[in-house]
Amino acid sequence: MDRTIRAVIAVPMIASLAACAGNRATFRAGVPVEIDKKSRGPVVGVVAYRQAGEPVDVASLIAGLENVDASRGDARAARNYSWSAGLLAGLGGFGLGYGLVSGVAGHDSGWTVATAGAGLAVIGLGLGYLGAKRLDRAVDAYNAQQRPTASLPAIAPWAATVDGGQGRCVVGGLAVRF
Measuring CA to CA, how many Å separate 89 from each of 22, 85, 107, 117, 136? Predict the structure, then answer.
């Protein structure tokens, strides 16, 4: 009976992880990245990053942005925050679950472990938020570097010509009649 319950829980989790991992494209240099905050995943606050309309894997995005000078610092910070957040949230979730089970079983130390686990999970969520903000800044810096710069013709506003017989003065492209 116990194995059946584990299989019922584990199979959908593995299938959803495989589905999430399989439909993400890798980062392509030179293509602008879109931050799609409207398309939320099953978790509140999930942001999708897209290139040419296709979702991009976040790990691939961070690795690609680390190779661009303009976004290197923010991308490295995002990677470090994300790694730390995952570690603390995982440890916190384990402590919370273990502590709750121990507390319900009658061990007084279980509630202490559950409290510490909840604290670690909250710290992990905060670090994850900071990592997401740094990744958004890295994407913005990358996109700013990808935008073409407009080359405008030089305007000399002090250049003036006076048409002798027509009664007008042209200053910097503006014609003034007198």
Answer: 24, 6, 24, 8, 21
> Could you tell me if 166 and 153 are in contact, meaning their C-beta atoms sit under 8 angstroms apart?
no
- Where does 2-108 have alpha helices with state H? 2-22, 58-65, 72-104
- Of 52, 62, 110, the closest CA to residue 83 belongs to 62
Classify the phi-psi angles of 171: left when phi > 0, otherwise alpha if psi is within -120 to 50, otherwise beta: beta
Sign of CA pseudo-dihedral 64, 52, 56, 129: positive
Query: Would you state the structure tokens that stand for residue 5, as one six-digit string?
Result: 């319950």
Q: What is the spatial distance between Cα 24 and Cα 136, in angstroms, rounded to a whole number?
A: 18
Contact criterion met (CB below 8 Å) for 124 and 87: yes
Q: pLDDT (tens digit, 9 = 90+) per residue, 94-119?
A: 999 999 998 888 888 888 999 999 99
Indicate the burial class of 34 (C-beta count within 10 angstroms; 0-12, 13-18, 19 or more): middle
Give pLDDT tens digits for 114-165: 999 999 999 999 998 899 899 999 999 998 887 765 554 444 444 444 555 5
pLDDT at residue 19, as a whole number: 45
